[in-house]
Amino acid sequence: xxxxxxxxxxxxxxxxxxxxxxxxxxxxxxxxxxxxxxxxxxxxxxxxxxxxxxxxxxxxxxxxxxxxxxxxxxxxxxxxxxxxxxxxxxxxxxxxxxxxxxxxxxxxxxxxxxxxxxxxxxxxxxxxxxxxxxxxxxxxxxxxxxxxxxxxxxxxxxxxxxxxxxxxxxxxxxxxxxxxxxxxxxxxxxxxxxxxxxxxxxxxxxxxxxxxxxxxxxxxxxxxxxxxxxxxxxxxxxxxxxxxxxxxxxxxxxxxxxxxxxxxxxxxxxxxxxxxxxxxxxxxxxxxxxxxxxxxxxxxxxxxxxxxxxxxxxxxxxxxxxxxxxxxxxxxxxxxxxxxxxxxxxxxxxxxxxxxxxxxxxxxxxxxxxxxxxxxxxxxxxxxxxxxxxxxxxxxxxxxxxxxxxxxxxxxxxxxxxxxxxxxxxxxxxxxxxxxxxxxxxxxxxxxxxxxxxxxxxxxxxxxx
Length: 465
Known about the structure:
Layout: E1 4-5, H1 6-13, E2 16-18, E3 26-27, E4 31-32, E5 43-45, H2 58-63, E6 68-71, E7 79-81, H3 85-99, E8 103-108, H4 113-125, E9 130-132, H5 142-148, E10 156-160, H6 168-175, E11 180-183, H7 191-194, H8 197-204, H9 206-209, E12 216-220, E13 236-241, E14 248-255, E15 261-267, E16 270-275, H10 284-297, H11 302-311, E17 321-324, E18 331-334, H12 341-355, E19 361-366, H13 375-388, E20 393-397, H14 400-411, E21 415-418, H15 425-430, E22 438-442, H16 449-464
Parallel strand pairs: 4-5, 5-6, 6-7, 8-10, 8-11, 9-10, 11-12, 12-13, 13-14, 18-22, 19-20, 19-22, 20-21
Antiparallel strand pairs: 1-3, 2-7, 14-15, 15-16, 17-18
Helix pairs in contact: 3-5, 4-10, 4-11, 10-11, 12-13, 13-14
């Protein structure tokens, strides 16, 4: 963290020091809102949740190493008492960003943000110290925590920006203004909240509108709702995709026998063959090319970019996380962190690539959420994709839309069943598996299928033990 004194923070947040004998004491660690992850020298934010109140953990946080806490009332610990803890976190992040002299890069899109961030972080780290969101810390709570981790020696601050409504991304840009902004695509995630894909596009375009004139907008030219965003900025525009007119382009896309994507990267008359040797799913080629284009915008040489792509992993977890059980050779694809319609279709493609022509394909599909009036349409499209890929057995989890998906698949002559979410899901799924199967686990985050997938991947190892 770029160091600030308690007195500095009180001034930035318009707060009042309480029970702080040394106002000049420096906060040297990042913000935290989880008392289990407090760092020495940090500042603990007492946020109120649905069931827990961070104020109740203030004393413990200080005992564990926090210098003080942010609170909206006096507590039994050194504190900066502020009118609004969440707004104070934003103000602190803004103050830190104002002192930071490195390159700020922001990424948004309906799907692929975290995967692209993970890939790009690997590339950027080859060029200099890089701070990026952990997992999907991309909203008004996680965003200030990420910014607070930056140091003056950090060459890059890489920020994933999420939105659930108009103005959300603009608010994040008000906190930290990016110099490079990348828009991956506009899909149907959260369409039930936004109302239309056009409204989603307008929200994503806020990241481009907030660029300075000396900035760079990195845009997906393959997406008809992203490409026009070039008109929303006076910054330089760099495009990526697969089309002939793209500045940074992927061609000859394929997969290895093990399901790892390969492609040829083209830019400014140069070409390079790339294998994403630690990543699965050909849809990640788009994410990799987006990362490459963003790195080019930052001035990183192409050979260094290629090296980063080939070493990249999806470190945030729950995204094309592939594990093979040693006991019976069952391969579990954990892609269950979330499930936009487009990402479910892409995951089914990946299931087919990884299984190849000889292994049985099993799809565990949870109901997709936040789709509004389009929910039935999208679940039917997923059912048609399952049928097209000849998935041997589909296991549905969720409500009425999933039940209809199961019926549609059964009517095609393929096997499909539902399971009882109140019982042990991993064991229920395991009863349908045979040695050598490839099983995809995919569903809305609220279903908790990420944990189920990990239990399933470890199940026979644990049983033998």
